[in-house]
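Box 3.1 — From sequence to structure: SCP domain-containing protein
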Amino acid sequence: MRHKPVLLLLPAILLAVGPTAVQAAEFTPQEQAEVLRFQREYQALSKTVYPQQNIYASKPSLKNKFKAGSLKSSYINEQVAYINYYRDLFGLTAVKTSSQGNKNAQTTAAVMAAINANPFVNQHGLPNEKKPSYISKKNWLLAQDVSNSANLNFNASPQTAGDVVTDLLTDRYNLSGSDTGHRAWPLSTRLSKISVGAAYGTNGYRYSVNQVLNVGDSARTASREMVAYPNAGVFPLELLNGQNIAWSLYFSNKVVTSTPKITVTDDDTGKTVTASQVANYSEYGFGNFQTVITYYPSKLQLTAGHKYTVRAGNLATYSFKLFKQSSSQTYSSKVSSSSTQSKNKVSQKDLQNKGLAKYLYKVGKNISTVKSKKITNAKAVKTTSKTKKTSKKSSKKSSKKSAKKSSKKSRKKSSNKAKAKSKKTSKKAAKKSNKKSSKKK
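Predicted structure (token representation):
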């Protein structure tokens, strides 16, 4: 049964993208070049929509003789291109994909589509579902494995391959609130590769799988110490445009246990706002980050061409300028040193992460409902044998709640929670994991 939706009232972000009487910040020649580069790269990305009739290279068989089928190479390539475009925005290295990884992700998506997995409950490890006779034990175990190491997106309307990535990046339809766990994985400073899968169920939902947890990634050297959303430098207004988009600060190696006071200043108007709902989700280890802090810039008016400065206690101070990525609009420039800055940079430390980090997925808390397209996002979690037991207990409680469709429009939802486990439990779980055909991190 579906969860009864609970509407979370989050602070609105006021947006102004039209003409303004305030003199906008001037862009340096370097910033101008960056804006033009990102605009051109975005325009070059495919905007092809992939309905059920257009997504497969070989159509899956989801009934008696189960076959996972395969996606068109164009869909996979376009999704990877969007991921790398966004990673470039944040100064992160590009990632690749693999044929075997995509095959596993596709099998996982097809299994969920075959059973019309409930989009409104936890599907990591398929704790709420029962294996049908026409799906082999091998494929079922593989789907349980991969779904536990992937961002899951369930959508009832056709989208481009990139729309799925954008939904995960903005993370605005998050069942568990503002933790931005979906965002943290594609923006991970240690991410080496991703895998892509997608399949439509008879219920009309497209089950999308982005496997992002990879063996060995947690021990990789981080490519950056801090990843901020919005990023320092120039940043697309579109990625902040809308309700319920939390901002975030991720630190690869620095451990922060407190919640800093955060302010955001529009340097062109002089107005400063104090961030609300500042939260520290570091214990969940999203994206293999040591620190995950999120917040909302309450009642902040965002304007293309303006410069903003974020001050997060003594952790970081940086600036960014907004531009429209979907247009060829240019901004005034002058020859000067860059106005963007980054103070109080944290020195790089050697990652002291022995064994595999463990996470416990929690279900049925702080469920939010937004009247929009029907979407559910579920973040990747690292699992142990205890995870499955806990998920089942949570599922039984959650299944008692009934879900109602909120409107004629479809809804988007996302869910994710996880807890760090002990090193001892981590080692035992890792040994068990290595025995499975497809392994999680």
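Summary of the box: The domain at 29-332+350-361 is CATH 3.40.33.10 (Pathogenesis-related Protein p14a).
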